[in-house]
Amino acid sequence: MPKTRAVEAFDIQYGLLEINKLDENSIQVEKIICNELYDPGSYYIYDIAVLKLEESIPEGYVFPTKLAEPDFNTTQTLDGMVIGWGRNATNGYLPTILQKVDVKIYSNTICDTAHNGVVDLDHHICSGIPENGQGSCQGDSGGPLLYGDIQVGVVSWGTSGNCGISNETHPKVLARVSSYNEWIKETAKLSSSTLQISVPLLFFILAIFFTNYL
User: Can you give the residue ranges of the Peptidase S1 domain (predicted)?
Assistant: First the structure.
């Protein structure tokens, strides 16, 4: 079962690449809106949520990113990037400075084969590094997978206990943003022409409540 904490336990820091325990650039979370169809029993489909903040982020601290449109596909392997504040290695330390790693966004065939058909390709997308050694880790859950300036995934789960293993046999699994595009916009009460979210803030705003890594 997911861990449960009161909404008062959550706040976000904006405009920072280095997070800290101070109240610097901090805003309290007012409401956590989880997708009503979230199902951990089906390999975490609908594993996505939106956070409503108590106040707006001041202008000048965010820049626009694009959410993958419903027709985004991964019939072929693509180049991508994962960012987050997760551990630097299995059982490693939690960095305070935002990290990034270049990854492959694996094709549907690779993703499906690696996980023996249990992933739902309408809701899941896979990423990793063929040569191993790097990848998303504990604490990266909820972080974005980017394809250029488009967010295509949100870090969710994996089968290997080793953060450095994310090859074609053990790829990481993420929520497929294109499947939730309309839900995100409707939930956030924003049109496609006005949706603007800071990439570093996506770790918080498109949050995954996932316990296998956290």
Answer: 1-189
Indicate if the alpha-carbon torsion angle 25, 28, 30, 31 is positive or negative: positive
120 in Cβ contact with 175 (< 8 Å): no
Residue 36, phi-psi category: left (phi > 0), alpha (psi -120 to 50), beta (remainder): alpha
Per-residue pLDDT reduced to its tens digit, 126-162: 999 988 778 888 888 889 999 999 999 999 998 877 8
Q: Could you please report the per-residue DSSP string of 86-154?
A: --SSTT----SB-EEEEEEE--HHHHHHHTTT-S-TTTEEEEE-TT-S----TT-TT-EEEETTEEEEE
Residue-range domain boundaries for the chain: 1-214
| Helix ranges (DSSP H) in 17-136 | 108-114
Q: CA–CA separation, 167 vs 184, rounded Å?
A: 30
State how beta strands 144-147 and 150-157 pair.
antiparallel
Can you read off the two tokens belonging to residue 81? Answer: 């990037």
